[in-house]
Specification:
about 500 residues; seven-stranded mixed β-sheet
């Protein structure tokens, strides 16, 4: 049994950022368990061609670890992964990370006030604080299609991209037209013989204002850190403005709607294709995408967009409902992630053997997106209703990191065995969140998105400005928690 003060699950932005903050606050007794053999989470796993962030990297990075050396405004996957690796090296986190240790279960020991954690390889840990930092993009979503086992060619999800895969002389089916598809299709279209792009719903795609930073610009960012801070602030404010449009202000969506229409019609000349690429829901109901080359790729002779429903998969390809067989050698699932399955497939038991999956049977809920009644000394990072539909998630995560440190300090000062958020505080918080979400475009825009559960509950997004979330988590409200002293109760 290995014992620590804090156990973190995952080495993406959440886990690495919190680890740095713990060390800076003189909390050195922690371990990070990582299921893979290297760090960076989603930026390690998603190596498909064209993979990049859709938030400018001056903002999509830690404020306490700025990087003046990004090669371009929207950095590619390899640079973001390297950035996180550099953070680990600089802050000497490797000594705290145990790779190839996938957590399968965690159970709270009420008598001792600790979490007992077990990994897939059988190693057992004990920690006062449990911090799941697995994010929402760790479990690939694979659609259930009849006959998938009969396909004789290659098939893989974008998060499981094979190294140096050769598309030469191959007919390829790409299922899905979300964020990963619009990045990879223009790249593989240069190599593949034929691409069949299968679209269920058309996305809104806006111009991507990308650019390379010149050597002189990078030099200035290094010489004058305030320039980097100014760039970060300007990006933040521009993105934050979008929150107004995503809320109840429908009129504010007219400009981006017009921008999308003008861009699409400028590039796509064929009326039938334009019709296929026109969404049947309000802009921002689903994730708004940015690209400079996706629409152009759809004009290529070797790229065909299909909006027919998939019926079955056979040994030679994909059969659509209209009776057509799309003969392909390769199937790529660009179908995103199981975002509503927070912490899956972990088995987590709290007080009185309370099961988290059962508690969340009607949709995940957490106070401030972090704390759950009956699961003391556990705070989730990037949990329910903390996703930003308009800005950088890193900004939100940094607020959570500071809150976790306050939580730990309060527990120690109160001499409590554990802190448990009150059921009333959790209920009140989530009632307010769901009430605010009712009028947002995510709930009223007329689409089915990954923001919603199958029952229509929005468990993903924060309803409003991200600075209001930071304000909410700036100072811990001690009245929202019960400080339990089990040992004292037993001795008395």
């Amino acid at each position: 049994m290995k014992k620590y003060e804090t156990l973190i699950i995952g080495t993406g932005f959440s886990g690495i950022g919190l680890a740095i903050k713990l060390k800076q606050a003189n909390h050195h007794d922690f371990v990070i368990l990582e299921k893979a053999d290297s760090v960076a989470g989603v930026w390690r796993d998603n190596t498909y061609p064209g993979a990049a962030c859709d938030v400018p990297s001056h903002l999509y990075s830690f404020s306490f670890e700025p990087n003046p050396n990004w090669s371009r405004r929207y950095s590619p996957q390899s640079e973001i992964k390297a950035y996180l690796e550099n953070c680990v090296a600089k802050h000497q986190l490797n000594e705290h990370i145990e790779f190839k240790h996938e957590v399968v279960s965690a159970k709270f020991d009420q008598d001792k006030g600790v979490w007992d954690v077990t990994t897939k390889c059988g190693t057992q840990y004990q920690a006062t604080y449990l911090i799941p930092a697995m994010g929402q993009l760790s479990l690939p979503a694979i659609p259930s299609i009849k006959g998938v086992e009969n396909f004789k060619g290659d098939s893989f999800h974008t998060a499981h991209w094979p190294v140096d895969y050769d598309f030469s002389n191959k007919s390829v089916a790409v299922i899905g037209t979300g964020a990963s598809a619009i990045q990879l299709v223009p790249v593989i279209a240069k190599e593949a013989k034929q691409i069949h792009l299968l679209q269920r719903t058309a996305p809104y795609i806006l111009h991507k204002p990308d650019k390379e930073y010149s050597p002189s610009q990078i030099k200035r960012f290094n010489r004058w850190p305030w320039l980097l801070k100014l760039s970060r602030l300007s990006v933040y404010l521009i993105h934050e403005f979008r929150s107004i449009a995503f809320g109840g202000q429908q009129s504010m969506r007219k400009l981006p709607q017009l921008q999308w229409k003008m861009q699409m019609q400028k590039i796509i000349k064929e009326p039938a294709l334009r019709k296929k690429l026109t969404p049947n829901y309000q802009i921002a109901c689903k994730r708004v995408l940015i690209s400079d080359n996706y629409y152009a790729a759809l004009n290529l002779p070797n790229v065909k967009l299909s909006t027919e429903t998939i019926d079955t998969i056979s040994n030679g390809g994909i059969n659509t409902r209209d009776g057509e067989l799309l003969g392909v050698d390769t199937i790529i699932y660009a179908t995103g992630f199981r975002t509503e399955d927070f912490l899956a497939p972990l088995e987590i038991q709290g007080l009185a053997n309370k099961d988290l999956n059962q508690s969340w049977r009607d949709g995940a809920e957490a106070y401030l997106g972090m704390a759950i009644n009956g699961f003391p000394n556990m705070l989730i990072m990037y949990g329910p209703n903390t996703n930003s539909g308009h800005n950088s998630i890193i900004y939100t995560l940094e607020g959570q990191m500071d809150y976790i440190l306050q939580y730990m300090d309060y527990k120690e000062k109160s001499a409590a065995d554990y802190l448990d958020v009150k059921a009333s505080s959790l209920k009140s918080f989530n009632n307010k969140i769901q009430k605010k979400l009712k009028n947002t475009v995510w709930n009223t825009g007329g689409c089915n998105s990954w923001y919603l559960t199958k029952d229509g509950k929005n468990t993903s997004n924060w309803p409003g400005f991200s600075f209001l979330y930071r304000k909410a988590v700036k100072k811990i409200n001690l009245s929202d928690y019960d400080a339990k002293k089990e040992q004292m109760n037993k001795s008395s």
